[in-house]
Amino acid sequence: MSEDLNKHGAEETLIHLEPDWERRNWCKWLGCSEEQLEHAVTYVGHDPDNVRRFLRQAR
Fold it and tell me: How much is the pTM?
């Protein structure tokens, strides 16, 4: 049972590009455009730390 909760909790911290409101929130939190966010997620995956590092290096 606890394994299922841990997996669900980790899933909530991933960057998802859908729905639109979630993509906009991530853009606001990371200080980037939607295009930059989509490029970063495509390149490094959905982990917010990896996306944050990628965006920082791109600046």
Answer: 0.78
Residue that the structure tokens 């997996």 belong to: 7
Burial state string for 25-54 with b = 16 or more CB within 10 A and e = fewer than 16: ebbeebebeeebbebbbeebeeeeeebbeb
CA triplet 38, 43, 45: central angle to 5 degrees?
A: 80
The token duo for 3 is: 């394994």
Q: Tell me the helix, strand and coil percentages in the chain, rounded to 5.
A: 75, 0, 25
Evaluate whether 54 touches 43 at the Cβ level (below 8 Å). yes
Whether 26 and 54 have beta carbons less than 8 Å apart is answered as: no
d(CA 15, CA 35): 14
**What pLDDT is stored for residue 58 in this prediction?**
86
